[in-house]
Amino acid sequence: QLQASGGGVVQAGGSLRLSCAASGRPFSGYAMGWFRQAPGKEREFLAAITWNGVSTYYADSVKGRFTISRGNAEKMVWLQMNSLKPEDTAVYYCAPKINYGGSYYLRGSYDYWGQGTLVTVSS
Are 14 and 70 in contact (CB under 8 A)? Predict the structure, then answer.
């Protein structure tokens, strides 16, 4: 089970920190990713972090504004979001990268999506 939290309403230019808590299954051996889905749009990749936290990957749309991190002891993944824009409004999800050989940037490499958290950025 994965549970994302920390969403809310924020003004443009503001910040939010999303959390993703894992329970009930192994966590430390998986890379983890954050995705988002806006109404009427496909779920899109935002950021990923390797199992040991050494490497991170970002979509161009969030590079320099969002930071992914993890704590294996806590079974947690975080997404720090700064300089938020109205176009960042979406439901945000986390998921483990279950396809070890797959691309970090592709949705198909991830599964076991949990509940998302809604982020609304007002202009």
Answer: no
51 Cβ neighbours under 8 A, 6+ residues apart = 28, 29, 30, 31, 72
How far apart (Å, rounded) are the C-alpha atoms in residues 50 and 68? 10
The torsion region of residue 86 among left (phi > 0), alpha (psi -120 to 50) and beta comes to alpha
* Rg of the chain (C-alpha set): 13
Residues 6 or more apart from 45 whose CB is under 8 A from it?
Answer: 33, 35, 59, 104, 105, 106, 107
Q: What is the dihedral of CA 16, 115, 61, 123, to 10 degrees?
A: -50
Question: pLDDT tens per residue, the chain (123 residues)?
Answer: 889 999 999 999 999 999 999 987 778 889 999 999 999 999 999 999 999 999 999 999 999 999 999 999 999 999 999 999 999 999 999 999 999 999 999 999 999 888 999 999 999
User: 16: which strand partners?
Assistant: 81
